[in-house]
Amino acid sequence: MLRQRHKTAGPTGTPRDPLWENVRYISATVVLVGHAITPLRDDFAAMHWLYNATWQLGVPAFALISGRFSTALPLTGRTAGRLLTGIGLPYLAISLLTSLQIWLLGGEWNFFVAEPVATLWFLLSLIFWKAALPYVVVLRHPLLLSVAAALLVGFAEDIGFAFSASQTITFFPFFFLGHLLRDRDGRLATAVAAVPRGAAAVVSAALAGGAWLVNDRLEPVWLAMKRPYSEESFALVWGVPVRAAVLLWGAVAALALLRLVPRRHVPLMTSLGTAGMFIYVLHPLVLRQLYHVDFFARIDTGAEAAAVLAAALAATVVLGSRPVQALTRPFVQPRGRWLLRPPEEPDGRDAPPGSRTGDAAPHAREPAAPPAARSG
After folding, report:
1. Is 5 a domain residue?
2. Residue 366 falls within a domain, yes or no?
């Protein structure tokens, strides 16, 4: 039932499940690699296929992980504070860092808050997902309703990039699916655990093969699910079935990943998984520098494209390393206690037993916020 054989203790002393850290690392790696090869997709068919075949292991899996560690208990003063300081504050800090970088590279000053740039939309959406979850779970058939909302929002021309509104709705089914996995004896967790690993491998291979078969017809913009159907380069009548297929594809692939990822501690992979937040939010800063010097425009051969892929994999190790974490922690995991008023005398009502908010995002510290990105 998605249980691990060995747990490691996090910084707060809370046991951490190697399974989820391994999944988090894979998701962060897929997001980074996907963004690194994006400028190569039009020139190299293999890169176009790799992006299409792995996208569902990136943000959809990150959303699923976030839902898995999110409680449906009503927000209290303490949990709301954790939400603001663990996710909201890093969102603002990285947005400021991004704005500063763009300005230093010669662009106009623009503090990206209302329209998140690059991978930051996930953090903003995560705040809305966590805040909405206690209300969604009281509905009948909440998963079905969330899927219906993801399909119908494509007809709304005025719902788009602002405050990550469109992707908040379209990726919420993955988040809620992960939340259903919290119940280890529930139907979903039991069903996933009953799937043989061999069958999960076959499903994953079939999905990757299917991506190759439709490689010339599958547009990456369809996978982002952030635009109305009228802007996604297909006839409006195909909007709902295409998006429904994307949602199903992402859900099946992400759940299959849970059966394939090692459940034990894996050297390097598990430790880097705890740094998933750093990998997720920092890599766009590196790629933006490469864009600025026209690095990707110089990639002409398959060997050079393969070298870019190898460098992207190596970048996950660098960005997740302890020196980089120490250097960037004030932005990725800023201390936010100064922002909150002192807690009142505990009376047992502020924090329900077992309530937690921090495990959801692709990050390295619990409880706090990513995804991965615990991105785009």
Report:
1. no
2. no
Contacts of 17 (CB under 8 A, 6+ apart): 4, 7
Domain containing residue 260? 11-329+356-360
Regions in the chain scoring below 50 on pLDDT: 1, 3-6, 8-13, 348-376
Number of domains in the chain: 1
Residue 193 lies in a domain: yes
User: Is 268 within the bounds of a domain?
Assistant: yes
pLDDT per position as a tens digit, 243-253: 999 999 999 99
